[in-house]
Protein backbone atom coordinates (compact mmCIF):
# COMPACT_ATOMS: atom_id res chain seq x y z
CA UNK A 1 0.00 0.00 0.00
CA UNK A 2 1.31 3.49 -0.85
CA UNK A 3 1.20 5.69 2.24
CA UNK A 4 0.87 9.45 2.12
CA UNK A 5 3.36 9.54 5.02
CA UNK A 6 5.50 6.68 6.32
CA UNK A 7 8.16 7.31 8.97
CA UNK A 8 10.22 4.65 10.70
CA UNK A 9 12.56 5.51 13.58
CA UNK A 10 12.92 9.11 12.40
CA UNK A 11 15.26 11.19 14.53
CA UNK A 12 16.15 14.79 13.71
CA UNK A 13 18.96 16.74 15.38
CA UNK A 14 19.93 20.41 15.09
CA UNK A 15 23.33 21.44 16.45
CA UNK A 16 23.31 18.60 18.95
CA UNK A 17 19.70 19.18 20.02
CA UNK A 18 17.28 16.33 19.35
CA UNK A 19 14.07 17.74 17.87
CA UNK A 20 12.50 14.40 16.92
CA UNK A 21 13.23 11.11 18.62
CA UNK A 22 12.55 7.72 16.98
CA UNK A 23 9.22 8.69 15.39
CA UNK A 24 7.19 5.86 13.85
CA UNK A 25 4.08 7.13 12.06
CA UNK A 26 2.04 6.46 8.95
CA UNK A 27 -0.80 8.31 7.20
CA UNK A 28 -2.95 6.51 4.65
CA UNK A 29 -4.51 8.27 1.65
CA UNK A 30 -7.69 10.09 2.64
CA UNK A 31 -6.95 10.15 6.38
CA UNK A 32 -7.02 13.48 8.22
CA UNK A 33 -4.66 13.78 11.20
CA UNK A 34 -4.45 16.38 13.94
CA UNK A 35 -0.90 16.74 15.31
CA UNK A 36 -0.99 18.12 18.83
CA UNK A 37 1.60 19.00 21.42
CA UNK A 38 3.01 21.84 23.53
CA UNK A 39 5.64 24.28 22.28
CA UNK A 40 8.89 22.41 21.71
CA UNK A 41 7.17 19.06 21.23
CA UNK A 42 8.55 18.64 17.70
CA UNK A 43 5.51 19.67 15.63
CA UNK A 44 7.39 22.10 13.38
CA UNK A 45 10.29 19.70 12.96
CA UNK A 46 7.89 16.96 11.93
CA UNK A 47 6.36 19.26 9.32
CA UNK A 48 9.81 20.10 7.96
CA UNK A 49 10.55 16.41 7.45
CA UNK A 50 7.29 15.45 5.77
CA UNK A 51 7.39 18.54 3.51
CA UNK A 52 10.87 17.53 2.32
CA UNK A 53 12.73 20.49 3.85
CA UNK A 54 14.61 18.52 6.53
CA UNK A 55 16.51 15.26 6.21
CA UNK A 56 16.24 12.78 9.11
CA UNK A 57 19.43 12.27 11.08
CA UNK A 58 18.38 8.65 11.55
CA UNK A 59 15.52 6.49 10.30
CA UNK A 60 13.59 6.21 7.05
CA UNK A 61 11.00 8.49 5.50
CA UNK A 62 8.65 7.92 2.57
CA UNK A 63 6.25 10.63 1.45
CA UNK A 64 3.61 9.87 -1.21
CA UNK A 65 5.43 6.64 -1.95
CA UNK A 66 8.79 8.37 -2.53
CA UNK A 67 11.67 7.27 -0.30
CA UNK A 68 14.12 9.93 0.89
CA UNK A 69 17.45 9.24 -0.77
CA UNK A 70 15.85 7.79 -3.89
CA UNK A 71 13.83 10.76 -5.16
CA UNK A 72 14.26 14.42 -6.06
CA UNK A 73 12.71 16.28 -3.13
CA UNK A 74 12.12 19.33 -5.33
CA UNK A 75 9.76 17.27 -7.49
CA UNK A 76 8.15 15.72 -4.43
CA UNK A 77 7.30 19.15 -3.00
CA UNK A 78 5.18 19.93 -6.07
CA UNK A 79 2.82 17.14 -4.92
CA UNK A 80 2.47 18.53 -1.39
CA UNK A 81 0.09 21.39 -0.65
CA UNK A 82 0.74 23.67 2.29
CA UNK A 83 -1.29 26.29 4.12
CA UNK A 84 0.67 28.40 6.57
CA UNK A 85 0.50 31.96 7.87
CA UNK A 86 3.97 32.70 6.51
CA UNK A 87 2.63 32.53 2.92
CA UNK A 88 0.40 35.56 3.47
CA UNK A 89 3.06 38.10 2.55
CA UNK A 90 3.48 36.56 -0.90
CA UNK A 91 -0.14 36.93 -1.98
CA UNK A 92 -0.90 40.07 -4.08
CA UNK A 93 -4.10 41.73 -2.92
CA UNK A 94 -5.25 42.65 -6.42
CA UNK A 95 -5.15 39.06 -7.68
CA UNK A 96 -8.51 37.51 -8.63
CA UNK A 97 -9.49 34.62 -6.38
CA UNK A 98 -9.90 32.22 -9.30
CA UNK A 99 -6.45 33.16 -10.61
CA UNK A 100 -4.90 32.67 -7.18
CA UNK A 101 -6.32 29.15 -7.04
CA UNK A 102 -5.09 28.49 -10.59
CA UNK A 103 -1.59 29.66 -9.64
CA UNK A 104 -1.26 26.58 -7.46
CA UNK A 105 -0.79 24.60 -10.66
CA UNK A 106 2.32 26.67 -11.42
CA UNK A 107 3.75 26.88 -7.90
CA UNK A 108 3.55 30.68 -8.04
CA UNK A 109 1.26 33.38 -6.65
CA UNK A 110 0.46 34.93 -10.04
CA UNK A 111 -1.02 33.44 -13.20
CA UNK A 112 1.46 34.19 -15.98
CA UNK A 113 -0.32 32.19 -18.70
CA UNK A 114 -3.87 31.56 -19.81
CA UNK A 115 -5.30 28.47 -18.06
CA UNK A 116 -6.74 25.61 -20.03
CA UNK A 117 -10.52 25.03 -19.84
CA UNK A 118 -9.88 21.91 -17.76
CA UNK A 119 -7.75 23.87 -15.27
CA UNK A 120 -10.41 26.58 -14.97
CA UNK A 121 -13.10 23.95 -14.32
CA UNK A 122 -10.98 22.30 -11.63
CA UNK A 123 -10.30 25.62 -9.88
CA UNK A 124 -14.02 26.45 -9.87
CA UNK A 125 -14.81 22.97 -8.53
CA UNK A 126 -12.32 23.37 -5.68
CA UNK A 127 -13.84 26.72 -4.72
CA UNK A 128 -17.27 25.06 -4.58
CA UNK A 129 -15.89 22.27 -2.40
CA UNK A 130 -14.60 24.68 0.25
CA UNK A 131 -17.73 26.85 0.16
CA UNK A 132 -16.31 29.83 -1.79
CA UNK A 133 -18.02 29.39 -5.16
CA UNK A 134 -19.36 32.95 -5.10
CA UNK A 135 -15.91 34.49 -4.52
CA UNK A 136 -14.21 33.42 -7.78
CA UNK A 137 -14.26 36.89 -9.42
CA UNK A 138 -13.46 38.89 -6.30
CA UNK A 139 -10.02 40.29 -5.56
CA UNK A 140 -8.06 38.73 -2.72
CA UNK A 141 -8.15 41.99 -0.76
CA UNK A 142 -11.98 41.80 -0.72
CA UNK A 143 -11.98 38.51 1.19
CA UNK A 144 -12.21 38.06 4.92
CA UNK A 145 -9.23 36.39 6.58
CA UNK A 146 -11.15 33.14 6.96
CA UNK A 147 -12.13 33.19 3.30
CA UNK A 148 -8.51 33.80 2.31
CA UNK A 149 -7.38 30.76 4.26
CA UNK A 150 -10.02 28.60 2.60
CA UNK A 151 -8.95 29.86 -0.81
CA UNK A 152 -5.37 28.92 0.06
CA UNK A 153 -6.57 25.35 0.63
CA UNK A 154 -8.05 25.33 -2.86
CA UNK A 155 -4.79 26.71 -4.24
CA UNK A 156 -2.80 23.98 -2.47
CA UNK A 157 -5.05 21.30 -3.95
CA UNK A 158 -4.88 22.76 -7.47
CA UNK A 159 -1.60 20.96 -8.13
CA UNK A 160 -3.27 17.58 -7.48
CA UNK A 161 -1.65 17.48 -4.07
CA UNK A 162 -1.78 14.04 -2.52
CA UNK A 163 -0.90 15.52 0.87
CA UNK A 164 -2.13 18.75 2.44
CA UNK A 165 -0.12 20.21 5.34
CA UNK A 166 -1.69 22.84 7.58
CA UNK A 167 0.76 24.48 9.96
CA UNK A 168 -1.26 26.26 12.67
CA UNK A 169 -3.31 27.99 9.95
CA UNK A 170 -5.72 29.59 12.44
CA UNK A 171 -2.96 31.72 13.96
CA UNK A 172 -4.12 35.34 13.93
CA UNK A 173 -7.69 34.62 12.84
CA UNK A 174 -10.57 36.11 14.81
CA UNK A 175 -13.40 33.84 15.95
CA UNK A 176 -15.59 34.33 12.87
CA UNK A 177 -12.71 33.88 10.43
CA UNK A 178 -11.52 30.80 12.28
CA UNK A 179 -14.92 29.14 12.12
CA UNK A 180 -15.27 29.92 8.40
CA UNK A 181 -11.91 28.32 7.78
CA UNK A 182 -12.57 25.23 9.91
CA UNK A 183 -15.88 24.74 8.13
CA UNK A 184 -14.02 24.52 4.83
CA UNK A 185 -11.63 21.94 6.28
CA UNK A 186 -14.52 19.88 7.63
CA UNK A 187 -16.04 19.80 4.14
CA UNK A 188 -12.75 18.58 2.71
CA UNK A 189 -12.22 15.97 5.43
CA UNK A 190 -15.71 14.61 4.73
CA UNK A 191 -14.72 13.89 1.13
CA UNK A 192 -11.78 11.70 2.20
CA UNK A 193 -10.00 12.45 -1.07
CA UNK A 194 -6.79 14.05 0.25
CA UNK A 195 -4.56 13.10 3.16
CA UNK A 196 -4.34 16.01 5.59
CA UNK A 197 -2.02 16.82 8.49
CA UNK A 198 -3.16 19.68 10.72
CA UNK A 199 -0.70 21.00 13.32
CA UNK A 200 -2.14 22.78 16.33
CA UNK A 201 -1.78 23.08 20.08
CA UNK A 202 -5.50 23.70 20.64
CA UNK A 203 -7.99 20.84 20.52
CA UNK A 204 -10.90 23.21 19.80
CA UNK A 205 -9.28 24.03 16.44
CA UNK A 206 -9.47 20.44 15.22
CA UNK A 207 -12.15 20.44 12.49
CA UNK A 208 -15.06 18.08 12.88
CA UNK A 209 -14.67 15.01 10.71
CA UNK A 210 -10.93 14.55 11.31
CA UNK A 211 -10.16 10.87 11.65
CA UNK A 212 -6.89 10.51 13.59
CA UNK A 213 -4.65 12.23 16.12
CA UNK A 214 -0.92 12.21 16.86
CA UNK A 215 0.26 13.53 20.22
CA UNK A 216 3.89 14.62 20.55
CA UNK A 217 5.92 15.37 23.66
CA UNK A 218 9.64 15.99 23.91
CA UNK A 219 10.20 15.08 20.27
CA UNK A 220 8.64 11.64 20.61
CA UNK A 221 5.23 10.07 20.00
CA UNK A 222 3.07 9.97 23.11
CA UNK A 223 -0.02 8.51 21.41
CA UNK A 224 -1.37 7.98 17.89
CA UNK A 225 -4.40 6.41 16.26
CA UNK A 226 -8.12 6.99 15.64
CA UNK A 227 -9.09 10.30 17.16
CA UNK A 228 -11.83 8.92 19.44
CA UNK A 229 -9.36 6.59 21.17
CA UNK A 230 -6.29 8.81 21.09
CA UNK A 231 -7.60 12.25 21.98
CA UNK A 232 -8.48 11.68 25.64
CA UNK A 233 -8.17 13.71 28.81
CA UNK A 234 -5.61 11.23 30.15
CA UNK A 235 -3.39 11.46 27.08
CA UNK A 236 -3.66 15.25 26.91
CA UNK A 237 -2.78 15.51 30.61
CA UNK A 238 0.40 13.52 29.94
CA UNK A 239 1.10 15.57 26.82
CA UNK A 240 0.86 18.99 28.45
CA UNK A 241 1.90 18.07 31.98
CA UNK A 242 -1.28 19.40 33.60
CA UNK A 243 -4.53 17.71 34.56
CA UNK A 244 -7.21 18.32 31.96
CA UNK A 245 -10.48 16.79 30.89
CA UNK A 246 -11.90 16.67 27.40
CA UNK A 247 -15.43 17.37 26.27
CA UNK A 248 -16.80 16.71 22.79
CA UNK A 249 -19.54 19.01 21.54
CA UNK A 250 -20.93 18.84 18.02
CA UNK A 251 -17.94 16.93 16.69
CA UNK A 252 -15.41 19.39 18.19
CA UNK A 253 -13.10 18.81 21.16
CA UNK A 254 -12.73 21.21 24.07
CA UNK A 255 -10.01 20.96 26.72
CA UNK A 256 -10.80 22.12 30.24
CA UNK A 257 -8.11 22.44 32.89
CA UNK A 258 -9.14 20.28 35.84
CA UNK A 259 -8.24 22.50 38.74
Map the helices and strands.
Blueprint: E1 5-14, E2 17-27, E3 32-36, H1 43-50, E4 58-63, E5 66-67, H2 73-77, E6 80-84, H3 97-103, H4 117-129, H5 145-157, E7 163-167, H6 175-191, E8 195-200, E9 212-217, E10 220-226, H7 227-230, H8 233-240, E11 244-249, E12 252-257
Parallel strand pairs: 3-8, 3-9, 6-7, 7-8
Antiparallel strand pairs: 1-2, 1-4, 4-5, 9-10, 11-12
Strand content: 25-35%
User: Structural class given helices, strands, pairing?
Assistant: alpha/beta
- Taking Cα atoms only, what radius of gyration do you get, to the nearest Å? 18 Å
Q: Count the beta strands.
A: 12
Overall helicity: 25-40%
What is the overall number of helices? Answer: 8
Uncertain residue ranges: none
Major β-sheet annotation? 6 strands, mixed
Q: Could you tell me the mean pLDDT?
A: 87
Provide structural commentary.
With 259 residues, this protein is α/β, with parallel strands linked by helices. 29% of the residues lie in helices and 29% in strands. The strands form three sheets. Strands 6-7-8-3-9-10 form a six-stranded mixed beta sheet, with helices on both faces. Strands 2-1-4-5 form a four-stranded antiparallel beta sheet, with helices on one face. Strand 9 and strand 10 form a beta hairpin. Helix 3 (97-103) packs parallel to helix 5 (145-157). It is globular and about 50 Å long.
